[in-house]
Each structure stands twice: as structure tokens, then as C-alpha cells.
Specification:
The chain is of the alpha/beta class. It has one domain: Rossmann fold. Helices cover about 50% and strands about 15% of the residues. The protein contains 15 helices and 8 strands. An 8-stranded mixed sheet has the order 1-2-4-3-5-6-7-8, sandwiched between helices. Helix 3 crosses helix 15, helix 4 crosses helix 5 and helix 5 packs parallel to helix 12. The radius of gyration is 22 Å and the shape is globular.
């Protein structure tokens, strides 16, 4: 009996040591890979000093109207995400894609991700870059909250708003599910390189891109940037806090609700035919935010509508830019 116990104890000890060695090796692999990625991960646009940190803005196009593009929550690299729109926008309007802190090429910040702080940062980076209104604000997903708040705070600078499958403030306050934190396990998988190793397989990469139409309209070089960004931005305090604050942020926008005098176009995905009554109802009611509003349901798309129908999304943006 004693021999059996000693043998079992040795097995447990060796097993634990093996796990620790693997975790240590994984952590070193992750650290080396991050350093390598950061060297190659150079800004596509320019960095500006905002509140003591570097904030990234990518710009292009020509014209008298500037289209300001706000990415959804968790979209690691907004520059890549909106890239299918650039060639169609550029001949007609200027455009500016900003990275909130914690995203893309921007730094992380110690400031809480409350809606007024985020909105002030957006306004500051546009000014620092020399961008001038009128703006057509375009939001995807949770980006709607900062776009609406921007329009509330700076109404004279806004010509119109286009939302791309963006939830309304009413939805985020009343109906959205509470945010779930991955906690210790997620951090462990990231820090020990497990997630990175999984993303070395084609099946995992394809699965991660599935809801974005496989990035069909994104060039291969930008797909590589997207993958690098996803690994670098997997977990940071700004992205976490942004989701944590989403209900409180929605409340601020709701408390200041007054229908806008400028146009609002609500683009809604049909989720490839899968019906969600709560979401569909909230999207229809989203039109209450403007005296000149319309909703379009885009067939055969999922949440990243602009990755499925960049032509249609661009047409709706340009329609507001011409008004």
C-alpha cells in the first residue's frame, strides 16, 4: 500500500512538473511572438497625442464631406475591417477610421471607457488630424453608442448617420445580455500561447472569419494584419471595460434623447434568415432617433454587413453625403 502511494505521489509530482514546463515554454513562446509581431505591426495611418496617449487615425479620399467610421466592439483592427469600403468612398468623400484606445494601432489607456470620455477622444483626434465637418457618422455594432453621443454633443458638425447592424441605445440598456468575462482561464490560454498555437491552424482561422464572410473582400496582406491584430489585442483592459460600461453608456445616450434633424439610415442584417424578434423589433424602433429615418434589411448577410455587401453600404453612405 505504501509503495502504491509513493508511486502515485511520484506520478502526480512528475505530472505537475511537466505541466509547469509546458506552461513556461508556452509563456516564452507567447512573449517572443508578441515582440516579433509588434515589430511588424506598423500603423497604417498616423498616430496623434490624445490625453497623453497615442491614438490612431487612418484617412483617405477627397471631397467636402468626411465619413467617420466607428468599428464594433472587439473588432481588433478597424482599418482592415472597413477596407472593403475605401475604394468606393475615395472618389467622392474623405473618410477617417479611428481606433479607440485598446484597438488597432492605438495605445491602451488608464481612463475608464465611459461614453463621454470615448466621444471626447474621438472629437480630439479628428481635430488633431485636421479633419473638418460636415461629418457622416458610420457605426458598426456597439459603435452606435459613441456615434449617437457624438451627434448629441456636436450636432452642428453632423450631416447624417448610418448604422451597420448597430444596436440601439434602448437595446443595449434593456435587452442586451450582461457581459461575460472569460476571467483567469482566458488569460491563462492567452499568456501561455495556447490561443496563438490554435490560430496557426487553417480551421481556427476560417472559423474566426466565418461571421465576417471569410473576409472575402479583404486582400491577403490585410488579412495577415487582421490576424496579427487579433492576437495582439485579444485581451486588454480597455476592450473589457468598454463592454462592462455598455449599459451605463446606453443610459447616458438615452437620457439625452431628442430626435435628430439630420438623416439616419439603419442597415440591419437578416442573419442569413435566422429570426431574432427582440433584435428585429429594436432595429425597427431605432428609426425613432431621427426625424428623417429609414431602415433597410440587407438579405443574405450576417452581423458584419459591410463584409458581405460593401457596395450597398457605400451607396447608403454616399446618399447621405450628397444631401
Amino acid at each position: 500500500m505504501k509503495k502504491w502511494r509513493k508511486r502515485l505521489l511520484k506520478i502526480v509530482i512528475f505530472g505537475l512538473l511537466a505541466v509547469l514546463v509546458l506552461l513556461g515554454a508556452g509563456a516564452i513562446y507567447e512573449q517572443v511572438s508578441v515582440r516579433k509581431d509588434l515589430k511588424a505591426y506598423t500603423p497604417s495611418g498616423k498616430l496623434y497625442d490624445i490625453e497623453g496617449k497615442k491614438m490612431h487615425l487612418y484617412t483617405g479620399g477627397q471631397g467636402d464631406v468626411t465619413v467617420v467610421l466607428a468599428s464594433g466592439w472587439g473588432t481588433a483592427n478597424p482599418y482592415v475591417d472597413f477596407s472593403p469600403l475605401y475604394d468606393k468612398l475615395a472618389p467622392h468623400v474623405k473618410f477617417a477610421v479611428y481606433d479607440r484606445f485598446g484597438y488597432g494601432y492605438s495605445d491602451t489607456t488608464d481612463k475608464k471607457r465611459d461614453i463621454d470620455t470615448i466621444t471626447n477622444e474621438i472629437h480630439e483626434v479628428l481635430q488633431a488630424a485636421g479633419q473638418k465637418p460636415p461629418y457622416v457618422l458610420v457605426s458598426h455594432s456597439l459603435g452606435s453608442l459613441e456615434v449617437l453621443r457624438f451627434a448629441q454633443k456636436y450636432p452642428d458638425e453632423v450631416q447624417g448617420i448610418v448604422t451597420i447592424d448597430s444596436g440601439s441605445p434602448e437595446y443595449y440598456y434593456n435587452d442586451a445580455e450582461p457581459p461575460i468575462s472569460g476571467g483567469f482561464v482566458n488569460q491563462l490560454l492567452i499568456k501561455t500561447g495556447v490561443i496563438r498555437m490554435l490560430f496557426n491552424t487553417d480551421a481556427v482561422i476560417e472559423g474566426a472569419r466565418a461571421a465576417r464572410n471569410g473576409l472575402e473582400f479583404v486582400p491577403d496582406d490585410l488579412k495577415k494584419i487582421d490576424l496579427t491584430a487579433s492576437l495582439l489585442k485579444l485581451k486588454n483592459a480597455n476592450i473589457d471595460d468598454e463592454l462592462r460600461q455598455s449599459r451605463a453608456n446606453a443610459k447616458v445616450v438615452l437620457d439625452n434623447k431628442k430626435p435628430f434633424p439630420f438623416p439616419l439610415t439603419v442597415l440591419t442584417s437578416d442573419y442569413l434568415g435566422v429570426t431574432d424578434e427582440v433584435w428585429n423589433k429594436s432595429e425597427k424602433e431605432f428609426t425613432s432617433w431621427s426625424l428623417q429615418a429609414k431602415q433597410l434589411v440587407i438579405k443574405d448577410t450576417e452581423h458584419y454587413v459591410h463584409q458581405y455587401r460593401p457596395d450597398l453600404v457605400t451607396d447608403e453612405i454616399l446618399a447621405l453625403a450628397k444631401k
